[in-house]
């Protein structure tokens, strides 16, 4: 009996000890500022243009985009060269946006760019009338490219075209990232004007799409769509997950206000 009591007591003590050990919070790690340093690799318009996005390659060189369509590479020593230039539609904030490096770059040399192809979009600002707006309906494009051995762009493969209304401002964006499974994620801005051409605040137009019970609200036009992007669940910019070879984004059912921030996931291989 004495031995049994000792065994039970020892087991209970072990359980208590284990519980205390497991409940203890993880110790915070000190961040040493000396572990970080800022090194200027490229600067000024000749080396960076109107900079938009960057991505680091396995050799520690950096790819960076400029809105006018120029993709540059700066190596670890700070030498910058042009990798390629895409023709782009560049009204207001549109043009070349994001750049991403494929997780398998060491073997496939794939990179991804998000940009506004020229198409046949008229120059200048778009009209306020919906009847005259169709010519400004375009796309922003996610494409895969291969970098040659001498650091030049080649072999474009279109992955996804994102519908976009052109000739307006603002909040254009396009960032590319990958998860641990190799899925590519694309996030965008709403590419919308928060005010009317006469300066009417966004809140005046917001009820048009989201609160139909407010008939006194000003009618939103094609160029006043930021009001419709907040909290909207019926938009053409819903999430997608697919492989690049077959990627497409079906239109959602029901009425579709023009845009909202969104993310797309595709297989990178």
Topology:
Blueprint lengths: L1 H22 L21 H4 L2 E6 L5 E5 L3 E5 L5 E6 L10 E6 L3 H4 L1 E6 L21 E11 L5 E13 L8 E5 L4 E6 L13 H4 L1 H4 L15 H4 L10 E3 L20 E5 L2
Parallel strand pairs: 11-12
Antiparallel strand pairs: 1-2, 2-3, 3-4, 5-6, 6-7, 7-8, 9-10, 10-12
Organism: Paractinoplanes toevensis
InterPro entries: 6-blade_b-propeller_TolB-like, Glc/Sorbosone_DH, Quinoprot_gluc/sorb_DH_b-prop
Pfam family, one: GSDH
Write structural notes for this entry.
It is a single chain. This protein is of the alpha+beta class and 269 residues long. It has a domain at 40-195 and 234-249 and 257-267: TolB, C-terminal domain (Neuraminidase), CATH 2.120.10.30. It has helices at residues 2-23, 45-48, 105-108, 202-205, 207-210, 226-229; strands at residues 51-56, 62-66, 70-74, 80-85, 96-101, 110-115, 137-147, 153-165, 174-178, 183-188, 240-242, 263-267. The chain has a four-stranded antiparallel beta sheet, with no helix packed on it. A four-stranded antiparallel beta sheet has the order 5-6-7-8, with no helix packed on it. It has a four-stranded mixed beta sheet with strand order 9-10-12-11, with no helix packed on it. Mean pLDDT is 74; it is low at 1-5, 7-23, 197-218 and 231-269.
């Amino acid at each position: 009996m004495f031995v049994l009591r000792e065994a039970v007591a020892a087991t209970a003590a072990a359980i208590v000890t284990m519980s205390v050990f497991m409940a203890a919070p993880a110790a915070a790690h000190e961040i040493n500022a000396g572990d970080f340093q800022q090194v200027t690799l490229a600067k000024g318009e000749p080396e960076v243009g109107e900079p938009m996005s960057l991505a680091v390659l396995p050799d520690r060189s950096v790819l960076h985009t400029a809105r006018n369509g120029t993709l540059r590479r700066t190596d670890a020593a700070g030498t910058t060269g042009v990798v390629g230039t895409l023709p782009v539609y560049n009204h207001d904030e549109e043009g070349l946006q994001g750049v991403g490096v494929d997780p398998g770059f060491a073997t496939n040399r794939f990179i991804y760019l998000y940009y506004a192809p020229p198409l046949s979009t008229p120059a200048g600002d778009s009209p306020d009338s919906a009847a005259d707006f169709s010519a400004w309906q375009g796309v922003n494009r996610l494409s895969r490219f291969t970098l040659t051995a001498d650091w030049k762009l080649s072999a474009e493969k279109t992955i996804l075209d994102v519908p976009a209304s052109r000739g307006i401002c603002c909040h254009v964006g396009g960032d590319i990232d990958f998860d641990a499974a190799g899925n590519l994620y694309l996030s965008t801005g709403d590419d919308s004007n928060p005010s009317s051409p006469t300066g009417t605040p966004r809140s005046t137009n917001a009820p048009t799409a989201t609160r139909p019970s407010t008939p006194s609200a000003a009618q939103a036009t094609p160029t006043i769509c930021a009001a419709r992007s907040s909290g909207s669940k019926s938009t053409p910019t819903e999430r997608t997950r697919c492989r690049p070879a077959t990627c497409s984004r079906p239109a959602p059912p029901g009425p579709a206000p023009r845009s909202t921030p969104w993310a797309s996931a595709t297989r990178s291989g």
